Amino acid sequence: MSSSVLRRFMTNALSLKQGQGLSMWCPQYSSLNRIHRPSSISFDRFRRSFVVATSSDFANENREFVIVGGGNAAGYAARSFVEHDMADGKLCIVSKEAVPPYERPALTKGYLFPLDKKPARLPGFHTCVGSGGERQTTEWYKEHGIETLFEDPVTSLDIKKQTLTTSSGKLLKYGALIIATGCTASRFPEKIGGNLTGVHYIRDVADADSLIASLERAKKVVIVGGGYIGMEIAAASVGWKLDTTGTAIKNLEAGSDGRVAAVILENGYTIEADTVIIGIGAKPAVGPFEALDLSTSVGGIQVDGLFRTSVPGIFAVGDVAAFPLKMYNRIARVEHVDHARRSAQHCVNALLSAQTHIYDYLPHFYSRVFEYEGSARKVWWQFYGENVGDTVEVGNFNPKIATFWIDSGKLKGVLLESGSPEEFQILPILAKCQPFVDKDKLQNTSSVEEALRMAESSLHVEAAK
Ligand SMILES: Cc1cc2nc3c(=O)[nH]c(=O)nc-3n(C[C@H](O)[C@H](O)[C@H](O)COP(=O)(O)OP(=O)(O)OC[C@H]3O[C@@H](n4cnc5c(N)ncnc54)[C@H](O)[C@@H]3O)c2cc1C
């Protein structure tokens, strides 16, 4: 991939879902008061108010707390329950997937390494290894008394009875419910070839296994979509030494065997392909929860700064939660792993302890490609803040690049590729403080190091004011 293609992918990749203009629902105390508050100060009272049924009508033994979803947020939430000593005999996780929560970003990174380059496989990357925590395998959940129901998605919620139904027909009871269902990959419609054999979407480990099976016999791969998923898969298939093209398309065509055979571009050109991977974004998985307040601006389930929905005892975290992004004063949904981890921990802490401070999140996102052994150049970058306003790009890939987002003179967001640990440490400080910067001077800097020094010096000017 050329450096201009990589640069385009990186700036497209910052998918912070944000509403326009002012927040419809701000984290002010008047709005918090509107919502029943079962957590923190009055936890004992809350527990009394939610009668935890003992009836054998219910398929789950642990009924005090139920988490729906078995992804990043669920894994980190489970760890927080254990830390509070509130998991054993009390917590149940019900998931669509067949395996315990894992660090989902690995699926388009280590998992897709060429097969001779030691690709990552489960149980290697169960949560919470991505942040240096314990590897929570099936045994870990058992040891901590956490009940797990796998491969059985929840299909409906009864708010009045505080029950859930699963696709196998199980009836589950909950005292408090945390929804952590994440997103599902957006699909191409069937009528333009979105369901053909050889067309892949990637959201979970089963999708990744199916893609690997295709890559093993692929000759020509086409990637559709210019976000980070597209970039990571394109990099992976280049690593597999496959002829790879990334593009926007009009439709897909099948060969005589019914398998995808060609991609028709908007301009009428045809590219032959035996494997097509679609990375065109994702939608919040709200299906069974439409009775809750859904966000009209960003999708997902609307929550307050403690991740409480408007229904007492029901919470939502991770990709599916539309929450007040305090520092920008608007409602947002963030589809990145840092938020999944932090929101889950914040929610459980608020639910189980006296913590009442509202979530104050600084958007953060990272990606890494070409990491396998023998790769000529690893590409890895981090972003902090928001990608609004004009951009100033400094440097090239030799040895690194940075992009600054400047709005009304203020530095709002910053992306750095191949920075040193010290340089990466400056990014959140810049994005949080949003100093005024001279765009022209920044543009005229001759290196990333100089640009970062200049941005950092604006912090001192700001502090002296
Ligand atoms: C391939 C890939 C690569 C990524 N790479 C990066 C990256 O490099 N950097 C980054 O910051 N972020 C990355 N992300 C995003 C990050 O993984 C997500 O933001 C994070 O996983 C969200 O956590 P979550 O728990 O909210 O959702 P998920 O991790 O998606 O978990 C949702 C879980 O809920 C389950 N579920 C859904 N519906 C139901 C139901 N009805 N009943 C029961 N279970 C259900 C799902 O099967 C899944 O187990 C990547 C995402 C993907 C898909």
TrEMBL record:
- Cite the Gene3D superfamilies for this sequence: 3.30.390.30, FAD/NAD(P)-binding domain
Q: Which residues form the Monodehydroascorbate reductase 3-like C-terminal domain?
A: 362-441
Enzyme Commission numbers on file: 1.6.5.4
Enumerate the Pfam families for this protein: MDHAR3-like_C, Pyr_redox_2
Q: Which InterPro entries match?
A: FAD-oxidoreductase/Apoptosis, FAD/NAD-bd_sf, FAD/NAD-binding_dom, FAD/NAD-linked_Rdtase_dimer_sf, MDHAR3-like_C
Tell me one GO molecular function of this protein.
monodehydroascorbate reductase (NADH) activity
The domain of life for this entry's organism is Eukaryota
Keyword entries, A-Z: FAD, Flavoprotein, NAD, Oxidoreductase, Redox-active center
Known cofactor(s):
FAD
Q: State whether keyword NAD applies.
A: yes
FAD/NAD(P)-binding domain spans which residues?
Answer: 65-236, 245-343
GO annotation, cellular component aspect: cytoplasm
Recorded hits in PANTHER family, A to Z, give: APOPTOSIS-INDUCING FACTOR 1 (PTHR43557), MONODEHYDROASCORBATE REDUCTASE, CHLOROPLASTIC_MITOCHONDRIAL (PTHR43557:SF6)
As for family, the record states: Belongs to the FAD-dependent oxidoreductase family.
User: What is the protein name given in its UniProt record?
Assistant: monodehydroascorbate reductase (NADH)
Instruction: Provide the species name.
Output: Kingdonia uniflora
